[in-house]
């Protein structure tokens, strides 16, 4: 906890949020929770998502129809912003019961994409235009890029064939996509992999939050005064002083946080996309 003599960083940051910021700066989040913590906190940072959550709650007697309108590659987002504790609570203040409900599914099977999500991506209009283009020759594959390296592809499956044959055919097709895999991996070069990317994401998000609230110089003083003993901040080697002494390092952390937001869930933070989802939520006849 923060010492009673310490000064909270800003009026818009509660004591609980201040403790959470120090958790993120030091990497004091349980490893089994860090991914969900990052998703929760980056969702709180998204003005479009926060606005969507508040607007959605105004709709009376409407079931969770938005579940079908969000990317199938990440079903956590609609769960997160439907919680009553979102966006007011930070991760550490969420009840254990609620945390248990926000679970990242570990599916071992391929997912079938909802056609309404493909429509949101513009796939249906794009494919129709390609199909009506007389200048296109040969096979025109029905595929479109999703978010974070995900692609949606329409494949034809003949269920009259034996399962082994179908698996062999898919393996051949997958091998042919080697260049796509290489391009995806190349984009990931230079990024922190594994759980480290979430610890670093939370660290950088804390820097971004402090920058918006009090700015570089005040944040320097606050992080120096509230460092937990002689411990290192996450990813740092020094055991004393502020989280960053150089403005360029400070700005780099903020840019990393914005890149984390953009690379992982770019569409989820886009105001236009979120607005279109809300309009569809109101119209879907459930």
How does this model look, in words?
The chain has 286 residues and is an all-alpha fold. Helices cover 52% and strands 2% of the residues. The protein has a two-stranded antiparallel ribbon. A hairpin with a 5-residue loop joins β1 and β2 (151-153). α2 packs parallel to α10. The protein is elongated. The protein starts with 14 loop residues before the first helix and ends with a helix.
Question: How widely separated are the two ends?
Answer: 47 Å
What proportion strand? Answer: under 5%
Helix content range: 40-55%
The average pLDDT value, as a whole number, equals 77
Number of strands: 2
Structural class: mainly alpha
- Tell me the radius of gyration: 22 Å
Biggest pleated sheet: 2 strands, antiparallel
Q: What shape does the CA trace take?
A: elongated
Number of helices: 13
């Amino acid at each position: 906890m923060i010492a009673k003599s310490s000064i909270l960083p800003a009026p818009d940051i509660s004591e609980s949020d201040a403790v959470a910021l120090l958790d993120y700066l030091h990497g004091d989040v349980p490893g089994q929770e860090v991914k969900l913590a990052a998703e929760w906190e980056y969702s709180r940072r998204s003005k479009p998502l926060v606005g969507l959550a508040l607007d959605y709650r105004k709709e009376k007697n409407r079931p969770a129809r938005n579940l079908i309108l969000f990317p199938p590659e990440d079903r956590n987002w609609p769960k997160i912003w439907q919680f009553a504790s979102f966006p007011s609570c930070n991760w550490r203040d969420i009840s254990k019961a609620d945390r248990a409900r926000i679970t990242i599914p570990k599916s071992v099977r391929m997912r079938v994409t909802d056609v309404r999500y493909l429509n949101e991506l513009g796939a249906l209009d794009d494919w129709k235009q390609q199909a009506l283009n007389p200048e296109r020759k040969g096979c025109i594959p029905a595929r479109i890029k999703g978010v974070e390296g995900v692609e949606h592809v329409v494949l034809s499956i003949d269920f009259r064939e034996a399962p082994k044959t179908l698996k062999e055919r898919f393996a051949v097709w997958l091998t042919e996509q080697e260049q796509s895999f290489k391009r995806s991996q190349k984009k990931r070069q230079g990024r922190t992999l594994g759980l480290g990317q979430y610890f670093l994401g939370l660290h950088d998000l804390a820097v971004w939050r402090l920058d918006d609230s009090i700015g570089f110089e005040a944040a320097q003083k606050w992080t120096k005064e509230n460092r937990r003993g002689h411990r290192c901040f996450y990813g740092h080697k020094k055991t004393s002083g502020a989280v960053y002494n150089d403005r360029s390092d400070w700005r780099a952390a903020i840019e990393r946080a914005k890149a984390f937001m953009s690379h992982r869930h770019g569409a989820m933070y886009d105001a236009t996309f979120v607005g279109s989802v809300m309009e569809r939520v109101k119209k879907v006849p459930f």
